[in-house]
Amino acid sequence: MISNTGRIIIDAREFVQGNITGIGRVLWGLIDALAKSNFVKQIVLAVKSYEAVPKKFVNGNRIRIIELPKSFIQSEKRLSDLSKAKASLLISPYPKLPIFGSHCLAVHTIHDVLDLTHPAYRKRFKVYFDIFRLKKALARADLTWYDSSSSKNETHKLAGKWGNNPRVRFPGLDEKFNTQSDQNAMDILKKFSLQPGYILVAGNGLPHKNLGVLLQISDRLKRPLVCVGVSQANQKYWQALYPGAKTLWIEHIEDEAFPSIVRNAFCLAQPSTAEGFGYPPLEAMACGVPAVVSDIAVLVETTGSQALVADRNDSQAWIKAFDDLEDSGFYQNRVKKGLQWVKPFLGREGWKKHLSDLVELLKGNLYEKGSNHRDYRTGR
Predict the structure, then answer these.
(1) Residue 1 within a domain
(2) Distance between CA atoms of 259 and 309, rounded to whole angstroms?
(3) Is 277 part of a structural domain of the chain?
(4) 274 contacts 112 by C-beta, under 8 angstroms
(5) pLDDT tens across 326-365, in order?
(6) What is the CATH number of the domain that holds 310?
(7) Which residue, 335, 287, 326, 329, is CA-closest to 307?
(8) CA–CA separation, 10 vs 92, rounded Å?
(9) DSSP bridge partners of 146
(10) Among 21, 60, 195, 306, which residue has the least CB neighbours within 10 Å?
(11) CA distances from 304 to 266, 299, 310 (A)
(12) Per-residue pLDDT tens over the stretch 158-213
């Protein structure tokens, strides 16, 4: 191991008060693992707002928090400047790096490129700027993390490259997703007018989440359909398309209460037409709840083929999958397989390969002797 490597700067602008995104989950797990490691002298979290930082990190050992300016350009400049101040490494949880460059070793993370390629989003003007930044980051970063092989392949199709040192690394899972019952579970369910045994869908409800394949059969399902995390605007989008759908919409559930919502579901459904990773099916498996996912490569990959798979365009296939789970023997078998699959991803163990990559990078072992690795200070 190496020690006292200096400062690691982390772009933590994804932390937003009252809302934890998939990228926010990645940040939380990675920072927690780094804070417990023995090769980091100091972690600097560059954030939008001090109040948005998870309480665990506010007074964390070796963690310093710096608020970035509100202006986009100024925040990008400040982040770049931080990489000059005796920093060993800058970590971006995004495909992009600071506009004004990184003056130390840099790592970026590509969860997906669906916002740049999906028909529902790719006509936005900002897409061209984001593709430019993606290509620049792939050329500049010393290490590129991909959440899945599928994301890696999609990135290559779009950008024509994988990056200098591409590594596929599944993000770790929070240990709060487990099979242990919460003594407050019934109070949590009551708060949201829920009874155990519903079909749960978790996500933001954007078009690629493909909720329509379930909404159109909601009146034929044997169990209630519950959609969590869908904003009011996205609820209206789906309600306009499927005005007769029977579903309970819950816009927001506190992060602490979410595991109880998952544990008390009959199963979790993720019918997406595109994803970069897909946390909910794995979180469900960790809670002993089977998952049913769409037949897209990334969800089959990240669930290790241990989730039930249904055609993303065939509502009848989803009815069959839910009906299959009504058999108790079949159900328990799926639970067992799911728990086995997610075990290596739980807690700090789930971030072991990420930390190993960083140690290799800081030691210079990612680059072979005589390689054409450029000097990161000059870009040559």
Answers:
(1) no
(2) 23
(3) yes
(4) yes
(5) 999 999 999 999 999 999 999 989 999 999 999 999 988 6
(6) 3.40.50.2000
(7) 335
(8) 6
(9) 110, 168
(10) 195
(11) 20, 8, 15
(12) 999 999 999 999 999 999 999 998 889 999 999 999 999 999 999 999 999 999 99
